[in-house]
């Protein structure tokens, strides 16, 4: 049974922590995506407006450039973070401390606030506001702010939260697109979120090099299991030859998932000769988070990821075998 800890008691405790403290570090998961960054910045702007000292940090690299989002100046590098002594750490969109940075959250008596929507969340915070049924962490942050102080949701905060929802639902297309998503998006647009501009910048416009890389990725598309499984492959040579970075491939897996009749799809990315990143997508109740957890990965039922310490061909063979089992054991 999935646990949900979004309740009035946790919100009251959160309000007290915000009132009683003055310095806050906001962290996100490794290779932060739009929901992670949007939720972090919204929370950072909310706290800054209350006169708090706030810095943001997430390890790794984002697939998109989010530097145009309001409040992005609060992002700090690792050095600035190590010399910052916040009394409170907010962790957003991160199911486990291992997905953030262990150095940061657990250093001495800092209060840790865990706000997330992953079903695998480990409730590692002193305050845990977790709802796996929420489509995005940004939806949870919106709920929290609406309860605490609805008038604090400025146009800048609305923009950040809108980006989180937009990207975690794939532009209102994924299976997590529910009524609350539309209610929240609507409320955010009422508050001034720039729906058209944000969709254009974060969903539609791509660098020429990214599109050229996508062309090669599409060329690698292969189907298995009578057309129910689709694979795409990005080798490090493709990245180098194209003058791209691996993070540009974020979202490519959706093309594999879009093949008609496909229910399970994977994008394989060669990190080194013995490390491969695998992004998984599924339809309906095929659970790729469960599958990914066998390899130490995780995510959501229909979107998950893992790292496998094998060369790319071996990784593909192992994952294909595993996904075929998932397919066959499904009634
Ligand atoms: P993506 O394939 O877009 O990188 O990730 C899809 C989803 O799976 C996201 O919710 C992401 O946070 C989660 N995810 C990706 N890789 C991992 C991983 O190695 N471990 C865990 N726990 N979650 C992951
Ligand atoms: Mn998310």
Descriptive account of the structure:
This protein is an alpha/beta fold. Helices cover 40% and strands 18% of the residues. It has helices spanning 8-20, 34-48, 78-82, 102-105, 137-148, 155-168, 179-190, 195-204, 208-219, 236-242, 253-257, 288-293, 312-329; strands at 23-28, 53-57, 88-92, 111-116, 127-130, 222-224, 229-234, 264-272, 275-282, 298-300, 303-308. The chain has a six-stranded mixed β-sheet with strand order 6-7-8-9-11-10. Strand 10 (298-300) and strand 11 form a beta hairpin. The longest helix is centred in the last third of the chain and has 18 residues, at 312-329. It is globular. The model has no long low-confidence stretch (mean pLDDT 94). The structure holds guanosine-5'-monophosphate (5GP) and manganese (II) ion. Residues 35, 93, 117, 136-137, 168 line the site of manganese (II) ion.
């Amino acid at each position: 049974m999935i646990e949900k800890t979004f309740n009035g008691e946790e919100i009251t405790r959160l309000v007290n922590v915000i009132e009683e403290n003055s310095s806050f570090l906001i962290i996100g998961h490794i290779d932060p995506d739009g929901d992670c960054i949007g939720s972090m910045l919204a929370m950072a702007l909310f706290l800054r407006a209350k006169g708090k000292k706030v810095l943001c940090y997430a390890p790794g690299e984002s697939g998109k450039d989010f530097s145009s989002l309001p409040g992005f100046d609060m992002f700090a590098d690792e050095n600035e973070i190590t010399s910052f002594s916040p009394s409170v750490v907010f962790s957003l969109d991160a199911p486990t401390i291992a997905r953030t940075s262990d150095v940061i959250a657990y250093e001495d008596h800092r209060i840790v606030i865990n706000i997330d929507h992953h079903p695998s969340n480990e409730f590692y915070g002193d305050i845990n506001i977790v709802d796996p049924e929420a489509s995005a962490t940004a939806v949870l942050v919106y709920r929290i702010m609406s309860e605490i102080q609805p008038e604090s949701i400025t146009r800048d905060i609305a923009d950040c939260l809108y980006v989180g929802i937009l990207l975690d639902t794939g532009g209102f297309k994924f299976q997590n697109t529910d009524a609350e998503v539309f209610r929240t998006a609507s409320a955010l647009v009422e508050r001034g979120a720039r729906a058209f501009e944000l969709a254009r910048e974060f969903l539609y416009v791509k660098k020429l090099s990214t599109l050229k890389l996508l062309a090669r990725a599409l060329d690698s598309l292969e189907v298995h299991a009578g057309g129910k499984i689709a694979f795409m492959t990005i080798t490090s040579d493709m990245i180098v030859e194209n003058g791209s970075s691996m993070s540009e491939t974020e979202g490519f897996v959706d093309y594999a998932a879009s093949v008609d009749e496909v229910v399970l799809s994977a994008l394989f990315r060669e990190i080194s000769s013995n490390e491969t990143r695998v992004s998984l997508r599924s339809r309906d109740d095929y659970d790729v988070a469960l599958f990914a957890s066998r390899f130490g990965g995780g995510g959501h039922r229909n979107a998950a990821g893992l790292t496998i310490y094998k060369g790319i061909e071996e990784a593909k063979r192992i994952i294909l075998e595993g996904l075929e089992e998932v397919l066959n054991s499904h009634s």
